Amino acid sequence: MKLCFYQRMALSLVAVFILVMVLFVWFSGQMQALSKSEAEQKLHLGLAEHLVSDNPLLQQGKYDHDTLENLFHTLMVLGPNFEFYFVDSGGNILAYSAEPGKVKLDKIRLEPMLQLVEGSNDFPILGDDPRQIAGQKIFSAAPVYQNNILQGYLYVIIGGQIYDSIIDSLKSSQTLREFAFLLVSSMIFLLVALLVLFKYFTAPLKLLSNEMEQICGEDFQFEHRVTQLSRWRKGSKDEVQRLGCAFNDMLHHIDKQFSQLQQIDKQRRILLADLSHDLRTPLANLQGYIETLALNADNLSEQDRRRFVEISLKNSKNLKRLIDQIFELAYLEGEQVTLNQESFLLGELLYDITAKFALKAKEKNISLTISPAQFDFQVFADIGKLERVMTNLLENAIRHTPINGKVELEVNQHKDKLRINIRDSGVGISDKEIGFIFDARYQASNSEKDSNMHAGLGLAICKKLIDLFDSSLTVESQLGQGSCFSFELKLVS
Question: What is the rounded CA–CA span in Å between residue 411 and residue 324?
Fold first, then answer.
């Protein structure tokens, strides 16, 4: 049978409680008996010595058996708590104050007696109990001399057999039974109270465990969740409350991630559908013209054949360009791109890139300038990927700038970085659309068209490439007044 956490802890608590109580009762009894023996032995420490000094028979060193028995009997009547023995110097019992057959030992050990006589303070000192084979009790002892010759020892057992009988009878009395019942009842009440308190403190943990099992059973379906999460106290010092808050926060985070994943999956499906359409268009055109050339080659003039070949070549280039962008974006999103960074002069790269667009800018009478005209800034970046970004941004700027417009590359130093601005006087971007221009496949409604096919992947690729440089591609734009794309590069001092 499997037990829950509370049941296991409750059983453990009961077992530990019982063990502790047994040990406590046993240890208390031992300490009480030890303290009582020590006190009684100290109280009657000089009893034997006083008896020897006050009794003429013992003072004269006489140890006649009958005489001593009569003496011990008289003393025992006066003090029934004591038992009297006279032993010789070897420990042999010569006389005693007991009925015949009650004494089990003929000889006792002298070591405890000598330890007491010599004045040891290591109380209680236990000596042999002649009435028991292996029993020990506290005692008082004194040597008996005759003409300075040791005759033996007066050995007095404190708390004799009669005393033990009375104590045993008292232990079974009604008062003690009532006291024991009261003590046991109190212990049981204390145990029950502890169990109730323990259940109270573990109840939140059980509630949290049940919620976790229910959430797992629902397979984290945040849209159709039935389980209502409990409200845990934030900022509490209670570990269970903090654990509950952490679980709720984690669950909300998972819900948010699920929602984002669904949104991303939806965007990917739309992107895949759009890209399939974009791929189908040049592919269909390419296939149509090639089939026309293949089936009607004899009926076409040389001029038509040349025109069809040029159109087919243009479509194949558009198709290749689109496929290259798709692969490039996929590699960037999959974080499979590595950087080959190096130090180089930024001015040389910018002039080389603007030279590629000089003819296209001239066709539209667009002023293409670099500001400042001369600088020797050196940056640390991947020159190939930076050229890819600059080429795409300049191409977009020229395409969206009308005739007689202006495109300017600005380079400004800010502390240990260079800020590069690609500014144009083109059509601009509306406030409603500017937040989406870095999304794949998004094209502004006022986007300028040319003879080439554009799939709307260029800015998305540029942003991810700039992210690789630990920078950020930003845009400022006003509709009809142009746009400015900016990013920063690390300056090499």
Answer: 30
